[in-house]
Amino acid sequence: MVRKHWQAFALVLVGCVGCDHASKRAAEALLAGSGGLAFAGDVVQFQLAANPGAFLSVGAGLPSPVRQALLLGMVPLLIAFVCLAFAWRAHVTRAQALALACVAGGGLANWLDRVLHDGNVTDFVSLGFGGLRTGIFNLADLAVVGGVGMLLWFTRTQALAPAADSSRHAEPERGSEGS
Questions:
Q1: In angstroms, rounded to a whole number, what is the distance separating the alpha carbons of residues 132 and 144?
Q2: Which of 38, 138, 155, 168, CA to CA, is 20 to 30 A from 116?
Q3: 89: in domain
């Protein structure tokens, strides 16, 4: 069990939820009733949106009972799975623990927002260059995407490392057997 990283895991998880909550309340206070704000030549836009779907409104068009079952019912199960995956792994690095905490914290932050806002999540940021523009998202979305990206990176780099280690160890053994 990875007990040495649980405090860092908990701190990042709570930090994700707190920062997301604070940013959403600030966005509501600053952007309510406005057409939004643009910075850096429209690269960054702040615009308040109530999102009934998942990341970038995926699933927003689903019938309400299906959407509610998925986003209010399944998300807590997925968050619990992430936390248990962390707790059960014997060899989780601090970086992996932080990545898992970002995924769990972002998921929990959006789930809590959804519970508090009649099934909707508060989104308020979009990025764009020229004619290309992202959908509107929030800090919790960034935490989840960043955490998943880190986990994929760690998986890739760790998958390559053992192969290199085993070939380094295998060569001297083959050389000593061939003599």
A1: 22
A2: 38
A3: yes
Q: What is the pLDDT along the chain (179 residues), one digit of tens a residue?
A: 456 788 999 999 999 999 999 999 999 999 998 889 999 989 999 999 999 988 878 888 899 899 988 899 998 998 898 888 777 876 888 898 899 999 999 999 999 999 999 999 999 999 999 889 999 999 999 999 999 999 999 888 876 665 544 444 444 444 444 44
Flag whether 167 is in a domain: no
Decide if 145 is inside a domain.
Answer: yes
Residue 91 in any domain: the answer is yes
CA distance to 2, 40, 90, 168, per residue, from 174 (Å) = 36, 60, 31, 11
Give the list of residues 6+ apart from residue 36 with CB closer than 8 angstroms, or none.
45, 46, 47, 48
CA distance 155 to 23: 31
Prediction pTM value: 0.81
What is the arrangement of strands in the sheet containing 132-133, beginning at the earlier edge strand?
37-39, 44-51, 121-129, 132-133
Measure the CA–CA gap between 23 and 112, rounded to whole angstroms. Answer: 14
Number of domains in the chain: 1
Quickly tell me which residue has 């970086």 as its tokens. Answer: 95
Identify the domain containing residue 53 by its residue range: 6-158
Q: Which residue type is seen at 148?
A: V
